[in-house]
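We treat protein structure as text, and this decision shapes the records that our systems exchange. We quote a single record here, exactly as it is kept in our systems:
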Amino acid sequence: MRYIVYYIIFGVYTMSYCQNIGEHQWKNRVLLICTDSFSTVKFQKQKSEFEKYPNELKDRKLVVYQITDKNYRIGLNGIKLFETDKEIFKKYIKGAPHFRVILIGLDSSIKMSAKSFITAHNIFDRIDRHFQKIATLISICLFFE
């Protein structure tokens, strides 16, 4: 009986945490790879592109979600399927997914969206440019103090 209670509590906690992309705010960036099916060629090609760069994903605090309208997985090697939260799906996907890659920043706003294959370096450049912009602004502020 005790194990059943632990399982239920852990399951509810895990499901509620994973379904809320907003939980990543100020901690991680989120990369959504949205598709009609996890088996499409486009999806597999995009997933393979990011699998080549595990260290770069980690360095940039990127958490990858693989999403269909019914299920999603967390991470590039995510095996466990979770039921897709319809509100999150509507908020970020807006219509039939077919295929879309969405970069969500630390502030939970959409920083980039593409409806076709996008290179990992394109995503990394977008993130890195933002850091360069912030560093420039800080140096200007320090200069005028």
